UniProtKB/TrEMBL annotation:
Localization annotation: Cell envelope
Domain Peptidoglycan binding-like, residue spans: 119-171
SUPFAM superfamilies given in the database record: PGBD-like (SSF47090)
Pfam families found in the cross-reference section: PG_binding_1 (PF01471)
Source organism phylogeny: Bacteria, Bacillati, Actinomycetota, Actinomycetes, Streptosporangiales
Identification of the protein by name: Peptidoglycan-binding domain-containing protein
Keywords noted in UniProt: Coiled coil, Signal
Length: 352
């Protein structure tokens, strides 16, 4: 009886299992079967690895300058922010009379009239007149001649100025080239006196400013190549053009932070990138490791006892975890070393 009862019980369990299997395969109460996807692998690669660091920077227009008024009167016109003014253009108007931009590196520090000589300011005025089409017959030299005065009168007539043949700071503002208006410091109707600031302008060329910790200034020597990620996600090349002196400032919690102002020129950019002070990400190269083994960063495993390891997954072998020593990071890879680790070995890369 006991043997018969045991056999019957086993058969009952077997039949029940078969019925459950039938339900699982054909019935409405199907149970989904989950199959683990095979883990992806990557090879250990031998080669050079560049360690890099990404920092936040801002794009700014280079060459900030203040534009001062040269005569007393009332402001009757100023340009709006973002206006680009080329040589020959009007910067502002006082009592409806224009202050005209001319190309030159020396400010207008005296009144120029016939007979004045021995001055580079005369030279740049004559060059400016010729570039605007008013210098026929004028010899570009350091002497304000009768021909120069005639050209000035023609220029004054074209701009609605009194035809005096003399030029002063009320009529001309010398700047190195085209400017972009950042801000008007006066409004139409404001009374002004000589020497008051009217505009804040800059050049039209953009540079990236980076406040770099002084302890890492070896990353940004003049001529160093960098990459800059723009707000639209595009990446362009850049070059460090200047590194300022160390500046000490008080940080959060009363701690002192020492930084250097790094300026980076963007290569191949002719159009402006957004507005002034647009945020960007700058990637600087830290160090270069030559002829080292590396794996994708995702292949690193945190070990229970500390440190890192990789899971070696060679074909036909049981996967095993190998403790590794890490080194430089760069381009999504990490330098690794361990006894027996060689190029070509496959390691597991967990799915994201």
């Amino acid at each position: 009886m006991r043997r018969g009862t045991l056999i019957a019980a086993v058969m009952a369990v077997t039949l029940a299992g078969g019925a459950a299997a039938a339900v699982a395969l054909t019935g409405r109460q199907e149970t989904p079967v989950t199959t683990a996807a095979p883990a992806a692998t990557a090879e250990v690669v031998r080669g050079d690895l560049v360690d890099s660091v990404a920092l936040k920077g801002t794009v700014r227009f280079a060459g900030d300058r203040r534009i001062l008024v040269g005569r007393a009167g009332t402001i009757t016109w100023v340009p709006g922010p973002g206006t680009v003014i080329k040589p020959g253009g009007v910067l502002f108007r006082v009592d409806r009379r224009p202050a005209v931009l001319m190309r030159g590196g020396l400010p207008m520090y005296r009144t120029l009239r016939q007979g004045v000589s021995d001055g580079p300011d005369v030279t740049q005025l004559e060059r400016g007149l010729r570039s605007l089409g008013y210098g026929d017959g004028v010899t570009v030299d350091r002497h304000y001649s009768w021909e120069t005065a005639r050209a000035v009168r023609d220029w004054q007539r074209a701009y609605g100025l009194e035809r005096t043949g003399t030029v002063d700071a009320a009529q001309v503002v010398f700047l190195p080239g085209t400017v972009r208006v950042g801000e008007a410091r006066v409004a139409v109707g404001d009374p002004v006196a000589p020497g008051r600031q009217v505009l804040a302008v800059s050049g039209v060329r953009q540079v990236v400013h980076l406040d770099l910790d002084a302890g890492r200034q070896d990353l940004a020597r003049e001529g160093t190549g960098v990459s800059v990620e723009l707000p639209d996600g595009k990446t362009v090349k850049g070059e460090v053009v200047s590194v300022g002196p160390v500046v000490r400032a008080e940080g959060s919690g009363g701690t002192e932070r020492s930084t250097v102002d790094v300026r980076i020129r963007l290569k191949g950019r002719k159009k402006a990138i957004g507005q002034d002070r647009t945020p960007v990400t700058v990637t600087l190269r830290d160090r270069r490791r030559e002829d080292v083994l590396s794996v994708p960063v995702e292949a690193l495993l945190a070990l229970p006892d500390g440190g890192f390891g990789v899971e070696v997954a060679e074909p036909g072998e049981t996967a095993r975890t190998l403790s590794v020593r890490t080194g430089a990071y760069g381009d999504g890879r990490v330098e690794v070393s361990a006894p027996g680790l060689r190029a070509g070995v496959k390691v597991t890369v967990p799915a994201p």
